[in-house]
Design a protein that fits this description.
There is one protein chain. The protein has 333 residues and is of the alpha/beta class. It has eleven helices and ten strands. Helix content is 42%, strand content 19%. Helix 7 links the parallel strand 6 and strand 7.
Length: 333
């Protein structure tokens, strides 16, 4: 997969891009149209053209195999070596990308006119649309307390429509079990690929650490978009109230003054632990608050891929470190 910015931009400076108001986009009922609006309206020229031709950049050679297009043969190289070689172009280097989307009940929360799951689905649809244009194979796995839907990564007509259909299904589960989906992705995806987890990450950090380390040890690139409602980032309660846990259904009484400090300390500590885990494993973690522009997520993805391209050697070292973390975890049990 190749994600590069337009010539005017640089990885170290903000890219010239539009800011997509989530409220305006959410009024578009069709999920594919939302994704198309985000990708085509604000990222024209961001990536290489997906079309064959002069815009596809030559990268390397590979030996000729029966059935290859003879137009790709390098006759000059054949004259020198008496062996057939095919020019391998950038469009042949597509990768498998998996969108792992949390559809637990906590994702149904929203203090705005739309919920976290509306925002998350839109982001997932945008990535699917964008990666399809990149000629990458895209798959989706949704989960709550168990794996709900799984569609393998493919690149064929009608596949995007199938992905968007799965993403549009209503929430049904209760709790969140992030262990099962990450284990399933790691076991199913043999080739190195890109795994994008979209979740509010209301889950124990230790479970997340173990699974992220395993994914990284297998050579996968991992990115996380943590989706939070503004009221979750800044706790606000006007008066003493009875509140309900969306996943367990348990009711509890909260005094706003007492709860505010406890909540903020717990939230900040959990956030800090998540960042430490992701930093140690070279996992890109981005917190997306649902009132933020939707195009920021694609911007993060592009910048992350640029850093990956420039830091291949370092990624190899971090993958070995992740393998060590997995072995250490297993040895301690």
């Amino acid at each position: 997969m190749t994600l590069i910015p337009s010539p005017q931009s640089d990885a170290s400076t903000p890219m010239q891009r539009g800011s997509i108001d989530p409220s305006a986009v959410m009024r578009i009922k069709n999920l594919q149209l939302r994704a198309k609006t985000i990708v085509e309206g604000f990222f024209n020229g961001l990536h290489r053209s997906p079309l064959h031709g002069s815009s596809v950049e030559f990268t390397e050679y590979r030996p000729y195999s029966v059935g290859d297009d003879l137009r790709g043969l390098d006759w000059k190289r054949f004259a020198r070596s008496d062996r057939y070689f095919i020019k391998k172009f950038e469009d042949e280097t597509s990768r498998r990308c998996y969108l792992v989307v949390d559809q637990s009940q906590s994702m149904g929360f929203g203090s705005l006119e739309y919920s976290k799951i509306d925002y998350a689905r839109t982001l997932a649809a945008t990535f699917a649309y964008f990666l399809t244009l990149q000629r990458d194979s895209v798959g989706v796995l949704t989960f709550d307390e168990q794996v709900a839907d799984y569609i393998p990564a493919r690149r064929r007509p009608g596949h995007l429509h199938q992905l968007l259909g799965v993403l549009s299904r209503p929430l049904s589960g209760k709790g969140t079990d992030i262990d099962a989906p990450l284990k399933q992705i790691a076991s199913l995806v043999g080739r190195r690929g890109l795994v994008i987890l979209i979740s509010d990450l209301l889950t124990p950090v230790d479970t997340l650490r173990t699974n992220l380390a395993y994914l990284r040890s297998r050579g996968h690139e991992v990115g996380i978009l943590r989706i939070l409602d503004p009221s979750e980032v800044t706790f606000h309660l006007d008066a003493p109230s009875m509140v309900v846990d969306m996943e367990s259904g348990r009711e509890m009484y909260l005094d706003p003054d007492a709860a505010r400090d406890v909540y903020q300390r717990a939230f900040d500590e959990h956030k800090h632990q998540l960042q430490q885990v992701c930093d140690s494993l070279a996992v890109d973690l981005h917190m997306m608050v649902t009132d933020q522009p939707l195009d920021d997520s694609l911007f993060h993805l592009v910048q992350s891929q640029q850093r990956r391209t420039r830091g291949t050697a370092r990624s190899g070292m971090l993958a070995r470190s992740a393998r060590g973390a997995v072995n250490s975890e297993r040895g301690g049990k």
